[in-house]
Amino acid sequence: MKHYQAVVIGAGCAGLGAAIALKEKGIQDVVILEKDDESGGILNQCIHNGFGLTTFKEQLSGPAFAERFEDQAEILGVELKTGTMVTKLNPDKTVEYVNPQEGYVTISANAIILAVGCYERSRGAVEIPGERPAGIYTAGQAQRYLNIDGYMVGKRVFILGSGDIGLIMARRMTLEGAKVLGVAELMPYSNGLPRNMKQCLEDFNIPLYLSHTVTRVYGHDRLNKVEIAEVGADQKPIANTEKTFDVDTLLLSVGLIPENHLGDDAGIVMDPHTRGPIVDEDYMTSIEGVFAAGNGLNVHDLADFAAHQGGKAGERAAWYIQNGKRKETTVHTVAGENVGYVVPGILHTAALPPVIEFYFRVRKPLHASTIVIRSGERVIRTIEKDHMIPSEMENVILTGKQLDGLSEDLVIEVKEE
Amino acid sequence: METKKLVCVNCPKGCNITVTLELGKIVDIQGYTCDKGKKYAAQETICPMRVLTSTVKVENASLRVLPVITEAEIPLNLCDQAMEQIRRLNVKAPITVNDIIVKDFLGTGVNLIASRSVKASKIES
Q1: Would the pTM count as exceeding 0.80?
Q2: Where are the CATH 3.10.530.10 domain residues in chain B?
Q3: What DSSP element (H or E) covers B68?
Q4: I want to staple A161 with a disulfide (CB 3.0 to 4.6 A). Which of A49, A254, A382, A416 is the partner?
């Protein structure tokens, strides 16, 4: 069985970021296993700009952003196997994969990094009643067809969900000649970035229906009509508020979920809130030597952040390969008032790295408020904020020293003023 | 006197900015909290500018389309015209990221460039 020091699963921005960091920290043999025919992951289909602002201080398209990482990985000598599907991850740190050149192969590793990305919630997941005609796609699926394969999926389009991919597809399909009749959002506020609300909807006079959902789809072979209705505070449709739109296409932009069947099968403990693995301050999962980063760990707003997190996980994995073993003494992190989740979920307080980044999301839009980070009654840090929204992930950096020797769980909560 | 209201998109704060115009000229900007916001509001009122991204047909490649991007912002009201020209373009691999696809696109002084590299599927002699 071939042995690698580090195996990275997934060559999107988090996987490339992790592989680069591993190499830079002196790990010799690093291989990335990628199921697609090329590296870059979802960035290849994200042809819009806005990538790279935090990483390279310039605005790049998704493919150009990916290429920067690909070039760096190549220069550093990262081995990349494309067209390679990982079929199994085992708790003994072996990985099984299949590709046309080698057939079915098992390899072992000192460290494995899951950079497996996320998948889109689909029609079934949101339970839209009606027939099952063609013409219903997730926004990312339509994006791939249009931007990589060069196909338009329809001419008259309605979009459910105001997530960024949906908004970006509203603009993209409009520019390509389709008519986008509207976007329905279940929540009373938009889930997309303000920039996308303006530049993808307002620029093209596409109406946004807040507190609305699609209640029915019509059409036998091909979609021909969707019905939407207003929803109450309970998110249930209100009778007699229905509107219909004659469309041949419905795009769903209703959320992203970390893709974790490999981790699940291996028995990695998952966080029910993020739907990704529970990791510690080193991005290590419940299986020693198996790490996670990027959208497969927690869904990020920007590719820059996923790549950054990949790099951090790579650094910590390198540290583990060079130094060794799981640390002792743990506390958990807890999502307190107004907080949806916290990553990392576990801290080994006896041996923390110099700097730890915490990621979390608020549950609802909040104005003047204070982020409080505490362990029991001991307040470690407070941060004043003017404005926080669920669609923008919060990132707080604490030093290992600030958390040294904690014995009670670390709570992150947000108090409204 | 005419006023225009807009929401700044530079950061999540989303300041509500009011721009006052007199005979098409900006005389007052209120509600911004930083310089970026003031500049954005002025530009957005006079002539909204956008980076345009799309795809063009590519030959001699394993891909069918090549993603392209305007090197800088172009006027929003040129986007329809820009798309019409982009639809007629046809390029040939190999392409390197940032290769100029159309120089001085629509006379804007901004180039339309490739936003990724594409290898040739066959090397021509």
Answers
A1: yes
A2: 53-114
A3: strand B65-70
A4: A254
